[in-house]
Amino acid sequence: MPFVYPTRLMTITANTQLPNLFPQNLESIPNNNHGVLPTLDSELVYTQDGAGRYLTFYWQQSELLGLNTENIVEELNRNQDFEPVDKVSYLERLQRVLTSLVPERVQCWFSYRQELFELELAIAPLMPRLGETATTVLVMGRLLQAKVNTLQVNGGLKTPTPLELSVRPRSVPQVSRNVSQVSQQRQKLVNKITSNIRRTLDLDIIWQQTVDSLGKALELERCIICPYQPSSSKVKVIAEYHHPEQDSMVGSEIDVTSEPAFAQALETLEPIVMDVSGANQFPQQKILVVATCYQDQANGLIAMNVRDECYPLTELELELAKEVADHLGTAIAHATLYKELEAARQKAEEASRLKSEFLANVSHEIRTPLNGMIGFLKLILEGMADDPEEQNQFLTEAHHLSIHLLNIINDILDIAKIEAGKMELDCSPVSLDELFNDVENFMRPQAEMKKLSFQMQKPATSDEIIVQGNYQRLLQVMLNLVGNAIKFTHEGGVTISADVVLKKGMAKSPSQQLPGKVKVRVADTGIGVSLDKQDKLFQLFSQVDGSRTRHYGGTGLGLTISQKLVEAMGGEVHFYSLGEGLGSTVTFTVPLYGSTVPLMLIKPQSS
User: Fold this and answer.
1) What is the pTM of this model?
2) Are 588 and 562 in contact (CB under 8 A)?
3) What is the mean pLDDT of residues 44-57?
4) Domains of the chain in sequence order
């Protein structure tokens, strides 16, 4: 589309009868910005001779540039501050216009101190009198964009001047030379991002939509988001917008302590602009970093490149970044809360399912011994026993079944107390020898009935070992563990051993050390447990294999109850198995009683 010159300009140059408003004599030209130039309704108007010397000059931004408007022409010609970057091409164009007397339109860059200005200019000759040669051009133009030519680090928030606000690239949609338009476009962008993140509670979608919206709207080279946890000094890039020719940073970690912009943004919760020249994440770039937060607690970081032509950032742009970060921080908090509630709901549903399965198995376990007891007693009451010996056998079997039923009921009551937090233990000194002797008396007959070896190995010390615990509960734990070992072992045997593990500390004499703990091991050569199922062993109401439980019997609560009881007495329980068919080992610890133990008679152990 051809450039249309203002009617007023055409009138001035075409009517030779009007007074000459732009004399050819340099000394007669006013050197200020008053007079006819402002009346031409153009942002920038000046006249020059063929050598590029200013004759008159008017620009609406003169004061913002710091130009002395009283002696502006003399200052420009003397200092040569405001001149074309490609001066040779510009002067050639002036000569061509003066020779051909044909106006031209051009876009070119001018420099002034540390700033570059892209101007759109219309260069027209001032028509001389008939018979004379044209020596002066009238230039009218407007500012397209400006680039601040500085590489200084901006560690704080610089308040831009009105000129900085006016020189943003028009291609960047959130910036305009009109402040009200900037505000409207900023609010439009914020509303778009807010609308997108409110449509979902999926954090992955929220993060990606945010970087995509910011990257496209602001024409960024790169924009990343990193979730932040106060307990960690590193953040991980979880979502990213970047130009296709750039390498992706998704999945990479950034050490906050080594990136000042990230650390400062987390500390102040304000947008931080900083030069990160030489950094791996943003080489030779300025970045804007802003922390997302909820209730004044940071929960993420947004980092984006800042283009040179958009630096320094305006207050409006920083407010945009802060507002987006605030909305995102709230969305992250809500999505995280929803995720936690969803996880809790699924966990509750799983617990309910496990309880249902547990009750189904336990009801079978309760009915089996109860039906046996009823059957044997009924045979006796109906006189089905042929002699006193057979009657005594029926009573013995009913008694064994009643003990088995009592153990099942005790397990259920114990786990109910543990869940209700009402399990109270009275701890007192317990003899390890007495405990091991009772376990052997109860369990050796069962092992021998299955033709299994049964070994018990006590610590090599001549003194009696005393532990701090509840005797009945310690016996219950050992009977549970040894009973399971015998139940799930068909060949080989079961070994129960104990070691004294002394605490590190200063002793009162070289022959003594401070008390520590006793570590008990129950090892078997039984069916073992696969590695992927071992995490279920200590879960409440969870059974490794329902078919196994039905085959071997039991409630599946033994390990869970044992763990809770040992922990209540200040110890720990651990399970080890290399896999199915490779046996298993269960260990638990119990504190030593307060008296010291002779060191010379104890086998050294690591804690």
Assistant:
1) 0.42
2) yes
3) 92
4) 7-149 (3.30.450.20), 166-338 (3.30.450.40), 342-418 (1.10.287.130), 424-598 (3.30.565.10)
